[in-house]
Amino acid sequence: MATEVRVPTLGESVTEATVATWFKKPGDHVAVDEMLCELETDKVTVEVPSPVAGKLAEIVAPEGTTVGVDALLAQIADEGNAGPEEPTLKKGADAAPVQPDAAPVDVMVPTLGESVTEATVSTWFKKVGDPVAQDEMLCELETDKVSVEVPAPSAGILTEIVAPEGSTVQAAGKLAVIAGAAGAAPAKPSAPKVEAAAPKGGKDVEDAPSAKKLMAEHNLSRDGVSGTGRDGRIMKDDVQKALAAASAAPAPAASAAPRAPVPADDAAREERVKMTRLRQTIARRLKDAQNTAAMLTTYNEVDMSGIMELRNAYKDQFEKKHGVKMGFMSFFVKACCHALKEVPEVNAEIDGTDIIYKNYVHMGVAVGTPTGLVVPVVRDADQMGFAAIEKKIGELGLRARDGKLSMAEMQGGSFTISNGGVYGSLMSSPILNPPQSGILGMHKIQERPVVVKGQIVIRPMMYLALSYDHRIVDGKGAVTFLVRVKEALEDPRRLLMDI
């Protein structure tokens, strides 16, 4: 008896992942909960454990394959039923026998994500009459948020394409029909057959229509573009990258495609590395924030003497009682929660022509990891005490650095704090984390001469920066928020008395 290994839930609005690494190969023995493979989404890395003990009989989705939620990854056989001694990777339609008497099966539009009701059929990977294996990718849909690949719900013959490329389909709409092998003569197609291009590798792969159009418009050869899609398929983003690399070069000698010969010693010292999906998402989201929001930054500075004295006086007792060290971040979280009550528009977001005010504070805390910046969320931070905040931030920070954060732990934030001071930053303008309307930037604590009651004294000072969306937050509100944060930090007793 074989046990199926399937793609786990990837998180809200995430519908696909790429198989990054297999830790086991066919024929290997596996234990319960032993890690089988690692999946990459545009936000997190997900490890897939073995649901049972046995022998890995078959790998259905090899490394580099794009898979949807609940797609079949592998088969694990009992020790006494492990299949052939030299199992091979399942690839294409030949790997899955077609049930001869299977009834026709409709291929429907999958769930597209929250608030997404329609999609456009971008590309068909198969044409009418082609055999397909269960979970083999049939077509790709594009929404305004994500691209969704549609797997075959069963093995058989693709007898009809109901929604050709370019069609707009509704959620749960019908895309195609798959019939069993018996009577598998192709039905008359309701749409023209999709003819595959002949790519470099010799395997029939259809490039994205938008990519082909863009290459034609710019007279760009396919050989000059590296495809990152399934089976080397060229996506629109690949073409844009190639064009950007060419236009960014100061001279033809440094252009991306084609490149003129460079000195051997220079070429040996260059390294070209493909951006991870996480880095691509970070780049896209940050640029979208700049393009969408009317972003403005206001600055202030805070004397950290009060917090440092309070921390030094109680840190040992605090750690002894709560089992966690007293850091600065809990003070900043509490100060921001306090200020957000007075200036609620900084804790709100724009949705079309509406403003959504949040009667809670889900505090995002930006964390740098080896693979990029992530923002785990401390939920209902306004209802938490100092110790609970420190524990939660510590837990989320550790999970972020280990790549163990779930999608749920990074969604739903209403405001964000980013601490560039841990890297030595003295001043910066943080970028908004959409759809939020505010982000506070912390910086390095530095002793500076300041005037206090007519006297020049040396104090530990920190610059604060609030970036905000000027479409919803006026200058008065932004300055008021930052002043309230400054007041609370300079006199922490105000937090206890809620003033």
From TrEMBL:
The keyword Endoplasmic reticulum does not apply. Residues 186-208, 250-269 are annotated as: Disordered. Belongs to the 2-oxoacid dehydrogenase family. Residues 2-77, 104-179 form the Lipoyl-binding domain. It comes from the Bacteria. PROSITE patterns: BIOTINYL_LIPOYL, PSBD. Pathway: Amino-acid degradation; L-lysine degradation via saccharopine pathway; glutaryl-CoA from L-lysine: step 6/6. InterPro entries: 2-oxoacid_dehydrogenase, 2-oxoacid_DH_actylTfrase, Biotin_lipoyl, CAT-like_dom_sf, E3-bd_dom_sf, PSBD, Single_hybrid_motif, SucB. Keywords: Acyltransferase, Lipoyl, Transferase, Tricarboxylic acid cycle. The keyword Acyltransferase applies. Residues 186-200, 250-265 have a biased composition (Low complexity). GO terms for molecular function: dihydrolipoyllysine-residue succinyltransferase activity. E2 component of the 2-oxoglutarate dehydrogenase (OGDH) complex which catalyzes the second step in the conversion of 2-oxoglutarate to succinyl-CoA and CO(2). Its cofactor is (R)-lipoate. It is an enzyme of class 2 (transferase). NCBIfam families: PRK05704.1, sucB. Residues 206-243 form the Peripheral subunit-binding (PSBD) domain. It catalyses: N(6)-[(R)-dihydrolipoyl]-L-lysyl-[protein] + succinyl-CoA = N(6)-[(R)-S(8)-succinyldihydrolipoyl]-L-lysyl-[protein] + CoA. This is Dihydrolipoyllysine-residue succinyltransferase component of 2-oxoglutarate dehydrogenase complex. Its EC number is 2.3.1.61. It holds the Pfam family Biotin_lipoyl.
